[in-house]
Fold BAG family molecular chaperone regulator 5.
Amino acid sequence: MDMGNQHPSISRLQEIQREVKSIEQQVVGFSGLSDDKNYKRLERILTKQLFEIDSVDTEGKGDIQQARKRAAQDTERLLKELEQNANHPHRIEIKNIFQEAQALVKEKTVPFYSGSNCVTSEFEEAIQDIILRLTHVKTGGKISLRKARYHTLTKICAVQEIIEDCVRKQPSLPLSEDVHPSVAKINSVMCEVNKARGTLIALLMGVDSSETCRHLSCVLSGLMADLDALDVCGRTEIRNYRREVVEDINKLLKYLDLEEEADNTHAFDLGQNHSIIKIENVLKRMREMKNELLQAQSPPELYLRSKTELQGLIGQLDEVSLEKNPCIREARRRAVIEVQTLITYLDLKEALEKRKLFPCEETPPHKAVWNVLGNLSEIQGEVLSFGGNRTDKNYIRLEELLTKQLLTLDAVDPLGEEKCKAARKQAVKLAQNILSYLDMKSDEWEY
């Protein structure tokens, strides 16, 4: 159709659709909640467009009616997606976990920086547990959920780093102000930096509405300028003291960029992350080797070569950069367990083959332990091949088989024989590790 002859109502509908299209990515990637300002802004824009669409006169013409219907459906679809993003059960789960972290920080951390409390090991364990729970929140590959999870993780992990750095660091004692007049100023700045830590933590966790990131950045930059202007008269000890305080300020300043970092696509879309890609490449090769070993007619011939390569894969995983990202850390941890489990499987197979080739006299209890190890080897092969979840009948069957082997080992009386005791202990540990591995494989974790 000639654009110059296009009906004004069609032109208006196309204009509205372009306006709606321009905010589509903002809606798809919206990671907040329904009480956020940005939610209300997007909702207001889309609702306004719906009214605009409804006001277009179709003049009873079928083509205009169809165009208006399509425009309304597109806009309503985005409104629905916006609402679903903000109210998704896993988004609410992220919110609830974050609120737990807020309560913990408000109670334990902020008072620490005012000198009325201290950071305990219980707090550190609690914050680590919160981080682990966040990494296990399912996103289903949904951009808004990945973004919300990563956004929340960056804040809580930043608090964890600030606390750990402060607790771990053994700072130099403030120099005596008698040493040089500039020392008094450095001591004063150091006190302000300590206060700024508490303010920063409160800001990151949203437990202090009286401060802003911009103002705190100005305060820290001002303290930095004050230190730069000091004349230390070439005194090495004063220069080193000043440098320590400057480094502390720089560490705090980097956390003020977290909002921007959390909006970076490559930060939350871990499928594109180079560390995750490395981990996936290792896992791909490990799975190829696993399939080859489980299907091999003469596996003993593959043992040495396979174990050497698997150890090399462990080395590759050790070199993966964690980027201070708990999701990457968890992905690497699980990959290491995957590879180590296959190595353990090969070690047990080798031991069982060696026992067949070089039989020796064994006591009945020791022989009973070896029988269990033989059973565990067969079960472990099945567990390595397992790819379901915890509701699968096969999962329940494997879990029952492993529990049965543990009960059998519990019934073995080593009769005081140390060698048998050690073998039974090792077999129990192996059975428990296989159970843990089965649980890990079936928990449907994703990054």
